[in-house]
């Protein structure tokens, strides 16, 4: 069969080829239009084929300096190119950050997919309706009444840390802060999230569950900067990918067992008519329900428990460690802190921090905020536009990655005068009032802000107050601390301090 002498097969193939060509041309024109829009943004010179991807000197002090310098040159918005084709918009000023954080622009798959095999579609990773439902069901777990009862856990865990520090102090030794603070934070979150008494502060890093979590953190930081290992199927072919899988399995098995045990207990209580309202995080997760009575599935509960463990442990470790570092570095700040603590404690014997104490520590709160500003645990957040959006006077096309560079926002020299100086008074009420709230975003802001912000602030205040009650901290003068970017901001070579009992000074 033929039409005007041309076979139907030829006609069909020509039509398909024409259609494909049209699609390709339209895609290309769309791509050119988007690139032209992005090219209007200020940016650094690019390198052939590599774009700007090879220009950051390192992930330590030199890299941070480079980030600050670039922010000084382009203090609102800029474009960076990963290779020749992928444009990334960087927002570093309250005016531009605000547009992104206040919106519902979703999280980018690029970065968050790396943790999906561990955390699943938990609160940190999910988007849209799934995220909104989880956020609504989980918010009651952070009600003040619940946070109040966590204070006992935090005090007990801080007591273990302080006693450890006492031993170092008795021997007059400098010790590395980060690892002990990490065990403390893990102890707190394991008890609060899982009701899991791990004794990890005494067992140390040998506990299999703790080893697996710290291995996952280490592997995540390593993979984060190796974008060629982003596809899971490639990563799992490597030995690190196989280690990641093993560690994920172990963490999931432990979490599932704890959840099952707790569920069984709840069922038994219910059958025996001894049911009491659930006041803790895991209990709330197990009993949370939508209006139609649907609760979270076992998989969803595990994802949330894993999410809170991850978000609630490494971040507070980083935050607390950098606070202790700043206190040890600035002796005038430390003196003022001691004065405030002494006033709050009066002649009380107990070293426990009460709920009321937490709101009577204004200077400590300023010190914590200033430390979070200079050394934010989370340095970077990523979103991807789902439709065109206007930011800072520029049209940003759909499907563009937006980097909210938290570190640069908090160190932006056009927003923070003498930005590299440690000045807690920046956060006094009179200095805060005039500042745009989106200038200070260590916990992010807007609908996807940190749900654990108050939990974290309470934890940091409690442990720092307990340490300040007993000790004077000094930095090891022979140890130069090197900051390092990763899943959180940590120290490449640790933070070494000496704790001197205050009564001996
Ligand atoms: C100093 C400590 C902390 C800092 C600096 C911090 C910072 C942040 C930041 C910047 C985000 C936004 C991340 C993004 O958009 O990708 C976030 C989200 C989140 N944080 Fe925190 N965080 C801290 C402690 C905690 C704690 C203790 C918990 C839990 C107990 C927690 C749970 C979460 C969760 C679940 C999210 C996702 C919220 C959502 O998307 O709805 N964080 N945190």
Distance, first to last CA? 103 Å
Average pLDDT, to the nearest integer? 90
Number of strands: 13
Radius of gyration: 26 Å
What oligomeric state best describes the polypeptide chains here? single chain
User: What global shape is seen?
Assistant: globular
Helix content: 40-55%
Strand order of the largest sheet: 3-4-9-6
Structural class assignment: alpha+beta
Helical stretch count?
21
Percentage beta strand: 5-15%
Bound molecules: protoporphyrin IX containing FE
Q: What about the largest sheet?
A: 4 strands, mixed
Question: What does the model show?
Answer:
The chain has 21 helices and 13 strands. The protein is an alpha+beta fold. It has a 4-stranded mixed sheet with strand order 3-4-9-6. It has a 3-stranded antiparallel sheet with strand order 5-13-10. Helix 7 runs antiparallel to helix 8 and helix 7 runs parallel beside helix 21. The longest helix has 33 residues. The radius of gyration is 26 Å and the shape is globular. The structure holds protoporphyrin IX containing FE. Protoporphyrin IX containing FE binds next to helix 14, helix 15 and helix 21. The site of protoporphyrin IX containing FE (HEM) has 22 residues, from helix 14, helix 15 and helix 21.
Helix-strand layout with pairing:
Blueprint: E1 2-3, E2 6-7, H1 8-39, H2 61-73, E3 77-82, E4 86-91, H3 94-102, H4 109-112, H5 116-119, H6 128-138, H7 144-171, E5 174-176, H8 177-194, H9 200-203, H10 208-224, H11 232-235, H12 239-271, H13 281-287, H14 298-311, H15 314-329, H16 331-345, H17 355-358, H18 362-374, E6 381-384, E7 389-391, E8 394-396, E9 401-404, H19 406-411, H20 429-433, H21 453-470, E10 471-475, E11 483-484, E12 490-491, E13 496-501
Parallel strand pairs: 4-9
Antiparallel strand pairs: 1-2, 3-4, 5-13, 6-9, 7-8, 10-13, 11-12
Helix pairs in contact: 7-8, 7-21, 8-15, 10-12, 12-14, 15-18, 15-21
Bound molecules: protoporphyrin IX containing FE.
């Amino acid at each position: 069969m033929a039409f005007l002498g041309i076979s139907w097969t030829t006609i069909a193939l020509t039509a398909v080829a024409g259609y494909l060509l049209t699609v390709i041309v339209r895609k290309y024109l769309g791509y050119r239009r988007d690139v032209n829009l992005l090219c209007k943004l200020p940016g650094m010179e690019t390198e052939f084929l590599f774009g700007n991807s090879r220009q950051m000197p390192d992930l330590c002090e030199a890299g941070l300096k480079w980030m600050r310098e670039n922010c000084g040159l382009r203090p609102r918005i800029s474009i960076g190119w990963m290779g020749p084709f992928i444009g990334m918009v960087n927002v570093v000023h309250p005016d531009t950050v605000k547009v992104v954080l206040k919106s519902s622009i979703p999280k980018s798959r690029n970065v968050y997919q790396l943790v999906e095999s561990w955390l699943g579609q938990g609160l940190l990773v999910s988007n849209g309706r799934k995220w909104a439902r989880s956020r609504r069901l989980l918010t009651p777990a952070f009600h003040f009444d619940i946070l109040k009862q966590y204070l006992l856990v935090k005090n007990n865990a801080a007591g273990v840390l302080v006693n450890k520090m006492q031993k170092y102090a008795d021997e007059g030794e400098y010790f590395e802060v980060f690892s002990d603070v990490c065990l403390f934070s893990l102890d707190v979150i394991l008890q609060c999230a899982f009701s899991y008494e791990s004794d990890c502060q005494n067992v140390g890093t040998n506990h299999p569950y703790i080893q697996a979590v710290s291995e996952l953190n280490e592997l995540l930081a390593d993979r984060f900067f190796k974008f060629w290992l982003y596809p899971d199927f490639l990563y799992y072919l490597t030995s690190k990918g196989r280690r990641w899988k093993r560690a994920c399995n172990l963490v999931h098995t432990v979490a599932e067992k704890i959840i099952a045990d707790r569920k069984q207990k709840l069922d038994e209580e219910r059958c025996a008519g001894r049911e009491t309202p659930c006041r803790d995080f895991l209990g709330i997760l197990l009993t949370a329900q939508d209006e139609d009575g649907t609760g979270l599935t076992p998989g969803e509960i595990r994802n949330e428990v894993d999410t809170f463990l991850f978000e609630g442990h490494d971040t507070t470790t980083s935050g607390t460690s950098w606070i202790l570092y700043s206190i040890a570095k600035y002796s005038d700040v430390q003196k003022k802190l001691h004065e405030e603590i002494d006033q709050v404690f009066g002649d009380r014997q107990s070293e426990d921090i009460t709920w009321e104490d937490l709101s009577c520590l204004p200077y400590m709160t300023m010190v914590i905020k200033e430390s979070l500003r200079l050394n934010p645990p989370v340095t970077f957040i990523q979103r991807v536009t789902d439709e065109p959006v206007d930011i800072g006077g520029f049209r940003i096309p759909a499907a563009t990655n937006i980097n909210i560079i938290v570190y640069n926002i908090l160190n932006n020299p056009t927003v923070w005068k003498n930005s590299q100086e440690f000045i807690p008074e920046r956060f006094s009420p009179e200095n805060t009032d005039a500042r745009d709230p989106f200038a200070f975003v260590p916990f992010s802001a807007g609908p996807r802000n940190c749900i654990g912000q108050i939990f974290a602030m309470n934890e940091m205040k409690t442990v720092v107050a307990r340490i300040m009650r007993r000790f004077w901290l000094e930095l090891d003068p022979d140890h130069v601390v090197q900051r390092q970017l990763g899943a959180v901001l940590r120290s490449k070579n640790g933070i070494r301090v000496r704790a001197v009992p205050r009564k001996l000074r």
